[in-house]
Amino acid sequence: MNVDDCIFCRMARDEMKVDKLYEDDLVFAIYDINPRAPTHILIITREHILSALHLGPKHAATLGRMYTAAAKLAKEGGVADSGFRLAVNCGDDAGQTVYHLHMHLLAGRRLGPEG
Ligand code: 5GP
Ligand code: ZN
Questions:
Q1: pLDDT single digits (tens) 32-90
Q2: pLDDT tier at 115 (50, 70, 90 boundaries)?
Q3: Choice between 1 and 74, residue whose per-residue pLDDT is larger
Q4: Which protein residues have their CB within 5 A of the ion that is ligand 2?
Q5: Could you tell me which residues are beta bridge partners of residue 106?
Q6: Ligand found nearest the CA of 4
Q7: Residue-wise over 56-73: b if at least 16 C-beta within 10 A, else e?
Q8: What's the count of helices (H) and strands (E) in the chain, helices before strands?
Q9: How far is the CA of 33 from the centre of ligand 2 (A)?
C-alpha cells in the first residue's frame, strides 16, 4: 500500500472526510469505525510509517506525541481515572489490518488480556 492509496494517508491529507478529534503537526486522532469498546480512538501518525517494525531514531518525537495525545484524549474523554489501554498491532498475528502506524485507545469497559 503506497501513500496514494493508504486510507490513513488520505485522511491525513483531508482527501477523505473524517471527524478529527485531535490533530497537530505529527499525529491526528479519529474514532474507530468498528469500536471494540465504548471508547475506541485511533491515534495515527501523519507520516506513512508501515508498522512499529519500521520505526527508527528519527521517529522519537512522533512516538512521544502519540502517547501524549492519547493521554490528553483519555482525560478529555473522561476515561483517565477508570483506565484505558494503548495498543499497537504489528503484523498478521496481532491483527494489523491497516499498514500505517496507529495506536488504539480502548476504554469504557473492563479489558481482558485478549482485549
Ligand atoms: P489494526 O487492525 O490495523 O490494528 O487497526 C485498524 C483499525 O482501523 C481497525 O480497528 C478498523 O476498524 C479501523 N478502520 C479501518 N478503516 C477505517 C475507516 O475508514 N475509518 C475509521 N474511522 N476507522 C477505520
Ligand atoms: Zn499511510
A1: 999 999 999 999 999 999 999 999 999 999 999 999 999 999 999 999 999 999 999 99
A2: confident
A3: 74
A4: 6, 8-9, 48, 100
A5: 40, 85
A6: 2
A7: eeebeebbebbeebbeeb
A8: 2, 5
A9: 17
Nearest residue to 27 (alpha-carbon basis) of 5, 7, 11: 11
**Residue listed under C-alpha cell 486510507:** 7
pLDDT of 1 > 80? The answer is no
* Cα(81) to centroid(ligand 2), Å: 32
**Residue 102 a catalytic site member:** yes
Atom of ligand 1 nearest to the CA of 99: 3
Rounded Cα distance between 96 and 51, Å, is: 9
Instruction: Provide the grid cell at 79.
Output: 476515561
Q: Which three cell numbers stand for residue 84?
A: 484505558
